[in-house]
Amino acid sequence: MAMRGARWVAAGLVDQVVIAAANAGTTLLAVLVIHPDPRAGQLLLTIGLGYLVLGLNREFVGNVLLAQVSRLSGAERDRMVRNALAAGFTVGCGAAVILLGVWAFWRHPAPKADLQDLVWLAPFLPAILLHDTGRYVYLSEREPARALRIDLIWIGTQICALLVGAATVGIRPGLLPASWGLGAVLGATTFLVMTKAKAWRGDPRRWLAETRALSGWFTATGVIGQLQVQAVGFVVTGQLTPAQLGYLRAGQATLLQPVQNFVTAMMGLLVPRASRLAADGDAGALRRQTLRVAAGFAGLAVLAIAVLNPLAHLLIRHVPGLAHIGALILPISVQGGIYLVQIPFAAAIRGMHRARLLFTQYAIFSATSLTGLVIGAATHGLSGAAWGLTTGAAVGLVVFVALYVFAVAKVRADSDPSEAAPTSRNASPASR
User: Fold this and answer.
1) What pLDDT, on the 0 to 100 scale, is given for residue 251?
2) Distance CA 295, CA 251 (A)
3) Torsion-angle region of 282 (φ positive above 0: left; ψ -120 to 50: alpha; else: beta)
4) Most exposed: 49, 72, 181, 255, by fewest CB within 10 Å?
5) CA nearest to 407, candidates 345, 359, 362
């Protein structure tokens, strides 16, 4: 049993290593290969919008699969999975139409911002979201090894497309988002063939109706969180040059994106278990899981900060193109450490279906982060912007812990049945 659990955790972590490598690799390729530097920054804005759509779909569909559908089994689960796949595909189609409209009519939304590369990304969004929804279906089944399989197909296809492009026409800006999309097409196709899931029989409207208690607040939370990420690139365009913005994105991709993908991996492992504990009303076990994981990740955060700084400086020494991110290493490393510590608290709140509390935390975190970003960029330039974001992360951690303590106390006391976790794992939160 212990060996099986270790393999399960390892598969989940390796899967996110694959995701992190792909995301960081795409960003680093844009910075190192695409010239001039402002052109790379413009490409990163387009890729960032792709991550925006992906992040919102994860809140609307993926994280609901982890928190709600993970409690289900049999025909009811199969029906919900079909609806989830249909919902993800529908969101992708709508996003593709909107972004193609932006490309056609509003390509310059801010000074020095150019979204000309959207035409290479938008048509692939339905496949990208379908592939990502398939990953979450596997994770909600506690099958991270199967999620890893389709992700290896996804990244393998990207690499092949980039190699073919480099050998024929060279690495052009549009090739990076197009290779992302091609990989998702093959990954999504593999998922549908292997699971025999009839996504076309799903109903996005039923998904919305049956999950609105979670998907509505989760999506609102995702809007806040993703807009905060995008605002990093837009609100400081007058204070940071496009090249500096590219350096900030590169620093985040190199140091922070792997941490964020690790966070996603642990959410995929912790939220289903937290959800089942909350469904059983076992507040004591949920509290023990949260505190033990928090203690372990606090130690990991300290170790990561101590190790990442010298390693990042060593990388910069051998890759001159990254020299400008040297001043960003410490603040981004600290920010990543904070994200590690808050993992178990976020997982517990999601598992308890306290979606409104999650929204509250993200709103406070985003407001403080953007305030710190603007003030830091205005006073100390690039490094000040990074420290401003780190300050926002620290405030977000404090808020997460406070809200977690409040939520667990409510469950333990069982003082409000309408807000307590359901007694049946198959119960829907829609009635709350």
Assistant:
1) 76
2) 27
3) beta
4) 72
5) 345
